[in-house]
Known about the structure:
This protein is of the alpha/beta class. Helices cover 43% and strands 17% of the residues.
Amino acid sequence: MTNYVFTSANRAYGPKVAALASSLKHQEPEVRFVWALVEQPGVARHVPTGVDEVLELDELEGDWVGHLRGRPIVEACTAVKGVVLKHLLDREDCESVTYLDPDIWVYAQLTPVWEAMHENSIILTPHMLSPSWTREGIFDNEVTTLKHGVFNLGFIAVTADPRGRQFADWWEDRLRTYCWDAPHLGLFTDQRWVDHVPVFFEGVQILRHEGCNVATWNLGERPISERDGELWAGRDPLVFWHFSSVDTIAHLAQLEKYAQNDIPRRISDHYRAALAAYERDFGYSGPWSLAASSPGPAPSPSLIRRSAALPLQLMTIGPLAAAIRRVVPKSARSRIRSWLLPFAGGR
């Protein structure tokens, strides 16, 4: 039986996919690593060493090429995660499927993940494992998590059993239609949906291993250290690090704020150097093959939803809402709301 690991990315993320593949295969050479390529099928690309299979969009059930064309790249790469999960779970040799974001580096065997799947079907990692106790920490961590979701979906692991397949069916359905980067509507791609999972499904384990899914947002609760040449995160060995926004100033700012020594900065520098090396071999700077077609760029679904949601939001603001109630009859307000909700993603 096969343990599958997959990532979802367009070809511009090739260097990150190469880094992930290299680190994963060094630690777990027996897994089958799949790159779900979010591009027009047949587009030219380099396949990094360690990638066992490139899964094209036309191999998935449904017209995903048409469905994703013109969508923002973050929404597009996230929307396919559910259907790829289903596709891999349905293979006869599949024992489990683990998703890892392309900007992850694996530092040790995924033993905590495999052990968690012995008795559970769905494994999740929260953004944080403990409360923040400063005002700044509360806003940086807990308030931000309320906006983006309790669980970080840079990682999820699912077993090929009835409970895992039941979850995959539900997740694929939600991401196909409602994978929106629209926090004003209570949605952030796939992450807010998974807040429901511990309630909706049986066999869910929240993995509290501090070495899994380490990132700048949880460094304050997981001090990084070196012990006998091995990296540790808090009380556990470091297993994988999620270098989210590593290309931005925000990443460095969070390191400066929450790193408790210089080890996280050295780890980040090492990862960035590895990416630079892979960029020489796998870098691609051309246009995304699923960008909106000419003539002219089509408005993205996110832009349409945000535009439609604005009047709805204005109708809820205190003084404006009172003024609208005085001028616009209730029946007319109801008709306006019912007309806008489908475009804004409401119900």
